[in-house]
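Student: Please help interpret what follows.
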Amino acid sequence: AITVDCAGGITWINDKYKALIGWNGAEPIEGKLIEDVLPNSRLRTVAQTGQAELLDVLVVGRRQVVVSRIPLRNDAGELIGALGVILYDRLQALRPIVSKFQQMQTDLASVRRQLAEGRQAKYRFSQFIGASQPALEAKEQARRAAEREGTVLLLGETGTGKELLAHAIHAASRRAEGPLVSLNTAAIPEALLEAELFGVEPGAYTGAGSRARPGKFQLADGGTLFLDEVGDMPLALQPKLLRVLQEGEVEPLGGTRVRPVNVRVIAATSRDLKSMMDAGNFRADLYYRLNVLPIQLPPLRERIQDIPMLCEMLLEQIAEIGGEASCTLASDGLERLAGYHWPGNVRELRNLLEQGVARSDNRRLSSADFSSLPECPATAVV
């Protein structure tokens, strides 16, 4: 065995280790840098990161040995160095076990890559379509938010593109290489939401299982957590969310220890959080913690001039999914769309175009293909 301090200096080594490395004892080995004695050693890394390496192969001279590296801490929990232990010095007999271990490491790395690919941003700023002043202002605010680390609060009616902007902000941020994890708080029953957010320790409740299950905050560590419909979060869970935002640590359900996390939160809601706060239905301290970088997304009725661009993009997407040629809009069809109030915003527009494409016998959609809409009160200018 051998120990080093946090600077990589050797503080102690036993005689067997000295014999293995061929140290003749002519000069003291204590105080020398570990890399000067063992060039391939990773003890300094373990001493500085606090991350143990419980099974590894180290080349010592012409021999390969199986080693463990363990961080050392004082009574206050502070890192003071690392311990290296040779577990086995006849590697050939362990070759089948080592090969299996290496294969498991390869498989684990592959699974991690697949998970990371599934947690990447799906959208970029270029996919937020609009040349109107309200749309351009919202996009510019989102670009500025991507350059910062504060919590983002996306405000707007349903269907205005809050999820799209959340993905775009993550993709343009310094956390783009980290995971993007999403959770719709309105879609999870209150009894399960705490476990989904913060994780579960073994045996926390009946049916919890014998293995710990990480929550969304742990899965998003190093990246971004998108909390959609945060206004629907139960009042009882809001203090725990506030603690994560303030302290950067989570306490799993049924756990006794907190765990540090490095997560940026992007929250979104279609509800009026300020009114909810005034009515006592949303905590004021959580509101102010979320409302660091607020971005108001305009409803479609306030950017009618964007409808032609949106229709072109949406019709191309619909055609690509259906494997058909893209439809276009006749002038009377465009006028009818522009004269509508759009309570469902872009999501409603897409649904209406999908219906029009499905019902129409030609590739040019006219006013008659949108018969479910009320007639325009006057000719709309688009």
User: Anything to note?
Assistant: Confidence is low (pLDDT under 50) at residues 378-382. Residues 101 and 107 are 10 Å apart (CA to CA).
